[in-house]
Amino acid sequence: MDAKGQTAIVTGAAQGLGAATARALAEAGAKVGIIDLKAEPLEVLAVEIGASAAPCDVSEAGAMEAAIAKLREANGPARIAVACAGIAVGELIVNREGEPSPLEGFSRTLAVNLGGTYNLIRLAASDMVGLSPLADGERGVIVTTTSIAAFEGQMGQSAYPASKGGVAALTLPAARELARHGIRVNCIAPGLFETGMLRGLPDKVQDSLLDMTVFPKRVGQPEEYAALVRHLIGNAIINGETIRLDGAIRLGMK
Ligand SMILES: NC(=O)c1ccc[n+]([C@@H]2O[C@H](COP(=O)([O-])OP(=O)(O)OC[C@H]3O[C@@H](n4cnc5c(N)ncnc54)[C@H](O)[C@@H]3O)[C@@H](O)[C@H]2O)c1
Q1: Measured between alpha carbons, how far is 19 from 9 in angstroms, rounded to an integer?
Q2: How far apart are CA 190 and CA 53, in angstroms?
Q3: For atom 42 of ligand 1, which residue has the closest CA?
Q4: Which residues are catalytic, by number?
Q5: Are 11 and 60 in contact (CB under 8 A)?
Q6: CATH of domain 7-193+221-243
Q7: Where are the domains of the chain?
Q8: Which candidate in 7, 16, 96, 174 could, as Cys together with 75 as Cys, close a disulfide (CB 3.0–4.6 Å)?
């Protein structure tokens, strides 16, 4: 599908990979709706790229229903939906004193990363079902974001890889179910990208991660992620797939 003239929704768009994707889609001529918890930077980006903003928590059913309804009213139902909202919380399962970690961090990470992705898929797909088919019978395209941590989770990071494993595992059943409506579902597994999430890690951890990257030996730029989203939107034969975008990095134990 050509993004030009189509309506798109991007979550996690206040910064990082989501913001770069919203910019790229606006540049490609799409009508863009953006969602994030952080209302202020979201509004700034909306003004900058001519998008509509709907601040909300992607893990909440009612708030997302209202946000999607607001964007539908502004731009029409979306044919393109990209899930970038996510959080990374590091926590040992059992701490050095042998005490169990509180359940809250794990539950919240699953609710945002996996639940928030499912929340976008269910609402966006429901709107796409009612649209007229384009070439190849295509009604919509959904792109989600897992992480290479889904496949090589490091110690002290159980919640994040568990949530991202769920996002990757959701890709094929979603693509299979939604195929009869002409909706494709693909997933991107980024390695290290230069965003607030990566900058939030201690320098020592960032250096050790960079060390594991094979080639090119640098972090990815959000624009390189956005370029893959655009390719997935445009290339109709790619469906039900999770694509690593990672300079051949394979994460070690820690
Ligand atoms: N940066 C990396 O190296 C990297 C690597 C692998 C995967 N990822 C994944 O890519 C996605 C984007 O990450 P990023 O690097 O741009 O991170 P980021 O922290 O820069 O951006 C994430 C955005 O999600 C928003 N968000 C968080 N919780 C939310 C919620 N409950 N509701 C709505 N918005 C919420 C944040 O406010 C933020 O704007 C995430 O899913 C992340 O797990 C990033």
Answers
A1: 11
A2: 25
A3: 86
A4: 160
A5: no
A6: 3.40.50.720
A7: 7-193+221-243
A8: 7
